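Format notes (please read before filing issues)

Several people have asked whether sequences and structure tokens are stored in separate files. They are not. Every record keeps both together, in the order shown below: the sequence lines, then the token lines. Line labels are part of the format and must not be stripped during preprocessing.
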Amino acid sequence: MKKLILTIASIAVTSILFAQIQTNPSNQYYNNQNEYYNAQLPINTKSVSGPNKEVVNVFYITFNYPSQSIENAILERLKKEGLEGKKMKNNFFAFKGVKYNYLWNRTFDFYINVIGSQNAGTVNLLMSQGYDNFIDTNDYEIQKRVSDWLTGLDIDIQRYIHSQTLNGEIKEYEEAQKELKKLNKEKSKIESKIAKKDTERRTFEAKRTVPDQNNMNSIDPNILEKEQKKANDLEEDRNKLDYELKEIKQKIEAAEKHVAEHDKAIKEIKSAKP
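Then the structure lines:
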């Protein structure tokens, strides 16, 4: 539940910050025609070791999500759009000879990698017209398209994390249900044993020798001793079963609580869908 709350809180805070950045007038770019346009997040560029270990200039953006979730979300989106990348050096994924209008209206190559930690990840984007003919990161039209695409990844990442969180919670819910079902079966078995043991005790008591003044002298003491031992054993077995039943009921109560908690968590996650 703590993990769930933190995840939902993270998405909510990021969404607020994202909205603030979108409306911040300082986040503007100036093109060659002296025209301003509002960008959702600042375009950043830097030099990194590229997919072939050469030094290249890339666009980049940082999100406050686990880096692996960022990478998975991007690759999942691109796969849905019909693009599958090839893993290269420096953890870059290459998408070659594609026409992807979100980034450019021509056939080109682009490379993506994500670096970071569990707290944040940086997406690096490199574009090429083929081989090492890399596209200028100062190109206005490219900047605008890249800005829109990179910042638009935020909602894809949120939805991916939400989906993974929901699926994980559903899996835990199903596991909790299986455990509860298993415990209820064990409880039924114990109750069945108790019923059989009670029948055995009643049958024994009905046939048990009862000494009185008329037969006291004729009863073999060994028989009385054996019957007493049998009665003690039956009582001991019954007490053990009572203890097992009490224990399994406690486990069932805890399991029912877990099922209810996971059910509540699933509803909360669904209601927080980005």
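For reference, the curators noted about this record: The chain has two domains: 2-166, 170-271. The first helix runs from residue 2 to 23.
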